[in-house]
Fold this protein.
Amino acid sequence: IEVNNIWPEIREYLKAFNKFKADVKPKLLFNEQIVFNLTKGYAGTLDRIYKIDDKTVLADIKTSSNFYHDMAFQTSAYKHAEYMYNSKTKESTPMPKIDQMMIILLGKDGTYALKEMPDAFSEFLNLKLVWGYMNPGKAKEVK
C-alpha cells in the first residue's frame, strides 16, 4: 500500500508495518483468520500467521503505547484454537501448529518493535471462567 494514499492519522503506522516486512521478510500464510475452539467454547479473529525463518509464527499487530502482559492471553487463545474458518468457502480446517507467538507493536513515529509472547493458555481459560461467572447469560453456548 502506498503510504501517501492513506489517511494522515495512520501513515506512520503503515510505515512501521512496511519497515517490519522489509526487515523481517515474513511469508504470509494466513491473514485476518477466524479461529475457534469448540472444546473450550471460544472464537476470535487472529491478525496474521507468517512463516519466519522456518517457524510458523502467529503475530498480533498492535498500536498501543507499550507491550502488556495480557497480550499473551489473546495470542495463546488463537494458538490453541482447534480450527480456522474460511468465510469464502464456508469450510473449517484444522489449526496449523504454531511454533512462536509475537506482538508486532507499530509506533506512531514510524518504528516497530517485536516481542515474543509466552503461552498463557491456562491463564486465559481461568479468566474465561471468571468472565463467564461475572457475566451470566452473556456467554453463548456452543452448539
